[in-house]
Amino acid sequence: MNEKYNEIPIAGNIVKPGNATEYKTGGWRAQRPVHNPETCLWIKNGTCGRCWIFCPDGAVKLTEKDGKYFYEYNLDYCKGCGICANECPTNSITMESE
Amino acid sequence: MVAKDKIVVEGLTGDAAIAHALKQADLDVLAAYPITPQTIIVEDYQKFAANGEVRAKVIPVESEHSAMSACVGASAVGARVATASASAGLALMWEILYCAASMRMPIVFAVANRALSAPINIHNDWSDTYGARDSGFIQIYCQSCQEAYDTTLMAFRIAEDHDVLLPIIVGIDGFILSHNVERVEMLPDDEVTKFVGVRDPFIKLDPENPITMGPLALTDYYFEFKEQQDRAMDNVPKVYAKVEKEFEKLTGRKYGMFEEYRTEDAEIIIFTHSTPGGTAKAVCDTLREKGEKVGVVRLRMFRPFPAKELAEAMKHAKAVVVFEKCRSFGAPSNPLALELKTAFYDLGKRPMVTDFVIGLGGRDVPPTTIVEGYERTKEYLKKGEAPLYETLGVRK
Question: Which of A36, B117, B204, B243 would be a feasible disulfide site paired with B157, CB 3.0-4.6 Å?
Fold first, then answer.
């Protein structure tokens, strides 16, 4: 981000596709989602996944290994919009101030 | 120079002259929405397209906002693009004017200058393009139909040059020039083809090599892109001179960023552009016969404003009389005089600048209006002070 005007592409063009990942939007976040594994259906039996479906930033990461289910957020990209908390049918996600 | 027997001479309106230039410039896309008084430009061009005389895609869009948007899109894939509009149409393009310039799209935009509403008025003044003076478009104003034809051809070369890559407005006075027939010399098609060449896009949208144009840039990069744009504008005079030199070789005609007329020993210089430039020169001749030391500087290039060159050309005068067809409401001066005063500011001895707002809404500007401004300026010189601006030719 220290490039001078003549070291960047003309007119703000993005000349390399897929470089949005280099832009960490997590810095915009005022509230972070906090996950409660006790009541989460994904952790319980690998179902639901509504938070993963609705997250606009792909910041919810659901994984499975040897029949065990894991849950995490990628806070580099989570903007703290709260959609996951809103969509959770078991209220397993709460938004807390950063 | 092109042989005389190859030159086609026709009586053309200003609009038709521009339409013929667009026809010969071998456009790929023309997207426009009809509005008086530029109507003939697009009408004539549509006729050429319907007759199969041009191979461009003509897009009859639903509004001027769409017209400029379509131009930006077409230009982004590397096409040579033009459009035309005026007044309210230009105002409706507003948002996209800035996009076209910032995205560095070399669109040629012919404007038949017309007053803005309200009251609705179809006649000439410069409020429309003056309002767009900060949009990032190059602006060149023409005095004659020949100049409109010539400037439109040169406009493609200037805009598409890789040191520039900016859109360009070619301005003609609505009705006064757009609808008046004058003698126009046209180059043969093959000579124009050689002169304008094929657009060589600096970068383009291409499915084989995907890029994104016009994305978001916030506090961290936006300013740097504006710096690029600013420097591109600085390059215009150099590129303009190069292009005009080539054009002169072809036609023997050249115009410069401004025209100097009998200014060498002039004590008072009249400064204006477009059709009042012609009136001012006629007035100048008459006043000279009466022994007045008067000259005219007729501006062509308003953006970028050739400040240094103008100051150099007029610094010997006691006063400069500005005539301009726009009122910048609430401003201490008006766009043309404002620029000139800035250009003069660093001179050790500055000419007095008087500023006359004339011809709003197409009010006729007869030679007597120019004479009145001149005579008043002489009085102000005697008094040693002048008002910041005055309206002239209005019932008050």
Answer: B243
CA distance B83 to B59: 10
Q: What is the CATH number of the domain that holds B234?
A: 3.40.50.970
User: Does B182 have pLDDT greater than 80?
Assistant: yes
- Give per-residue pLDDT as tens, B360-395: 999 999 999 999 999 999 999 999 999 999 999 999
Mean predicted confidence (pLDDT) in B58-65: 97
**Which domain CATH number covers B336?**
3.40.50.920
Contact: A11, B220; criterion CB under 8 Å: no
Domain that includes residue B222, residue range: 4-251
Q: Which residue of A1, A12, A16 is in closest CB contact with B225?
A: A12
Judging by beta carbons within 10 Å of its beta carbon (0-12, 13-18, 19+), is residue B35 exposed, middle or buried? buried
* A4 → closest Cβ in B165, B215, B224: B224
**SS3 label, residue B377:** helix
pTM: 0.90
Residue A3 distance to chain B (closest CA, Å): 9
The verdict on B168 and B137 lying in the same domain is yes
Q: Which CATH class is domain A34-98?
A: alpha beta
Both B152 and B264 in one domain: the answer is: no
CA angle B145, B146, B147 (to 5 degrees): 90
Domain count, chain B: 2
Beta strands at B294-299 and B268-273: parallel, antiparallel or unpaired: parallel
pLDDT in tens, A41-90: 999 999 999 999 999 999 999 999 999 999 999 999 999 999 999 999 99
CB contact under 8 A, B224 and A5: yes
